[in-house]
Amino acid sequence: MEKKDENDYLWKIIKDLNMVDKKEKMIYSNIKINNLKTNKNNLPKIKISKKYVEVGCLGIWKLSSSKNKYDIKKLKDNDANTYWQSSSIGPHTITIQFLKLTKVSKIFLLFNYLLDESYTPCEILIKIGNDEHNLEYLCTTYCDINKYSLEDPFWFVIDLKKINFLSFFSNYNLKVLKNKNVSIYCHCLQICILSSQHYGKDTRVRQIKIYGPNYSFYKYDKMILQKT
């Protein structure tokens, strides 16, 4: 009888342990599923005032080069897991031709150093003008990867309010730039990647968002462009 009781007791412990193991697996799988649902595209949140709107959708985009299927669509699909990759000798450019004179205040570029390493852009130059054949230098900035968490994708922000301009577009002067809400008017914007981290030849950008001040006809302009 004692042996039987011992065996029953042992079987009970084994069953309890199995139940705990099953529960842990279920909890883990639920957490994994929830993470997949919430972080499906792994896109970091952009912290920006509601007075700004995304104006990149109001332009026609053009790349200097692209490798296979890593094209323009990957820059605008709201998915941090995809990317545009260049496929030529630099500098590598992304040119946005707006359909009308557009205000630009902030440019957001999504990088992922953990996955891209030497493909991550380093020196970035911004040009503006009337079209891609008539552009003027606006500013140059650098991505210092030591300032960012390298475990996750991060937004590299080019805030025109914080940039020290060395050259000005012909329509601008110092009085305009003293305004707190700095925005640059342009028909065409070009993001030019002059170099990548560790002297990499090609470059990768995962997403690009361009913001400008909200205005009355923004929704209509966006609607018109989507229909064309």
From TrEMBL:
GO biological process entries: anaphase-promoting complex-dependent catabolic process; cell division; protein K11-linked ubiquitination
GO cellular component annotations of the record: anaphase-promoting complex
DOC domain ranges (all copies): 31-228
Keywords, ordered alphabetically: Cell cycle, Cell division, Mitosis, Ubl conjugation pathway
UniProt xrefs under Pfam families: ANAPC10 (PF03256)
Entries under CDD domains matching the protein: APC10
Family: Belongs to the APC10 family.
Function statement: Component of the anaphase promoting complex/cyclosome (APC/C), a cell cycle-regulated E3 ubiquitin-protein ligase complex that controls progression through mitosis and the G1 phase of the cell cycle.
Name of the featured protein: Anaphase-promoting complex subunit 10
Species of origin: Plasmodium yoelii yoelii
